[in-house]
Amino acid sequence: MPDGVTPPGTRGRILYAALELFAELGFHGTSIRDLAKQVGINSATLYSHYPSKEDVLAELVALGHVGHFNALQHALAAAGDHPSEQLVALMRATVFSHTDFQLLAIVANNELHALSKEKAAPALALREQGLQMLYSVLRRGAEMGEFTVADEVLAGTAMASMGLRVASWFGPDQPYTREQVADNFADFALRIVGGKIPGCC
Known about the structure:
Elements: H1 9-25, H2 32-39, H3 43-49, H4 53-78, H5 83-100, H6 102-110, H7 117-143, H8 152-164, H9 166-169, H10 178-192
Helix pairs in contact: 1-2, 1-4, 1-6, 4-5, 4-6, 4-7, 5-6, 5-7, 5-8, 5-10, 7-8, 8-10
């Protein structure tokens, strides 16, 4: 997880332990007893920090989605004025958030379904805002003649889905660096909409 986002002490240790267990066994495959044992506390102590196992997952899901959305915002703000540059920035930010914080990305996305509608709502809202950010770039690119987009929602969904899966396969056993993956995925996204980096051939 990113530095400084987890609470100190036992509460933070619970989150780190849950991150490992949920990524390996899934939310439903992890018991409170498993989680307490991993932290080195008893179940009663765990409940004094989190009312339920779902609340632990909800905090991890929130951390993952907030981190990813913030990365997208920062990338877009730092990009140039051209939609092509903005699309590249968004795709690279997506890849990096999934390569640099793999377990968090896996848990935040794969276990989101285990949350109640109420607890999942904040993460789903951030996910939708991120998609709207991408759709806006695609729409503007089409209006400016930089992109050819038959359906911005389908194109954006394909790009987002492509980035989403990176956390599931990227790792030291792969012959690619994070930068290579980010650059190639940005190129794939541009190809989907017939775009290119300004100044490039």
